Amino acid sequence: VNRIQPQLVKRVKFHTLDEPILDTYGVSDEIDKALKHRVWLKSGGYLVINQTEALIAIDVNTGKFVGKGNARLEDTITKTNLEAVREIARQVRLRDLGGIIVLELIDMEDRNNRKRVLQALQENLAKDKSPTKVLSFNDFGLVIMTRKRVKQSLERTLCSPCANCDGAGWIKSAQTICYEILEEARRLSKNLVDVRQTTLRVHPDVANALQGDEKEVFNLIENYLGVVDINGDKTVHQEQYDFAFI
């Protein structure tokens, strides 16, 4: 440091504790928080941050915050939005978010309050080394901003798409799979001859649904295929199922 950045030498301290340095300063915990979609605010409100291929959406919610005493709803909303934009500016830098960012703040009726919130956002973004541009509230009450994309975001750098949902964030429900199995049973029944035993291998949640809430669907499946033995297998993906015929 003395050779490369001598002016920073006084800021450097040697870590002598037995505890790992990342644990001492809570770096790992902060990284985990920065990978979560929901960010809580001190007031009880929260942000929801979602990244897509086209843009990044940040939604602001009052959550548990209902204001103090006889505070007007507009004042409570404005206070939450002011706190939110400070945290948004921090999260944008922390997560290294870039490209088009859409902010859905809580709707405010007073134009002066909108100006206050927008000004607070711009002041907090001024600390950012990466160039940013903020547009005013549009007709839908959204704030659109852009931030120069220098590299991949923290989420894209540290994470990979989920093997179960392939990065979609959703998988089909057990109920939906039950009806897909019914359609498959209807198709298979047209070509089956002299089948003595039929086994259906599915995820345990789907097996429970077929034997419980979706029992009527299972009865229809057996109308097409005869007696069916259900095998709940944890190794099977929830959207996957296999028929075995003997």
Please, what is the average pLDDT? 91
Rg computed from alpha carbons, rounded to a whole number of angstroms:
27 Å
The number of helical runs is 8
The secondary structure category is alpha+beta
Helical coverage, percent range:
25-40%
Query: First CA to last CA: what distance?
Result: 73 Å
The oligomeric state is single chain
- The number of strands is 9
> Spatial order of the strands in the main sheet?
1-2-3-4-6-5
List SSEs in N-to-C order: HHEEEHEHEEHHEHHEE
Indicate the overall shape.
elongated
Q: What are the low-pLDDT stretches, counting only 5+ consecutive residues below 50?
A: none
Main sheet characteristics:
6 strands, mixed
* Beta-strand content estimate: 15-25%
Can you describe this structure?
With 246 residues, this protein is an alpha+beta fold. The protein has eight helices and nine strands. It has helices at residues 21-24, 27-34, 73-95, 111-125, 154-158, 174-188, 204-211, 215-225; strands at residues 38-40, 46-51, 56-61, 99-104, 132-137, 143-147, 198-202, 228-232, 241-245. It has a six-stranded mixed sheet with strand order 1-2-3-4-6-5, with helices on one face. A three-stranded mixed sheet has the order 8-7-9, with helices on one face. β2 and β3 (56-61) form a beta hairpin.
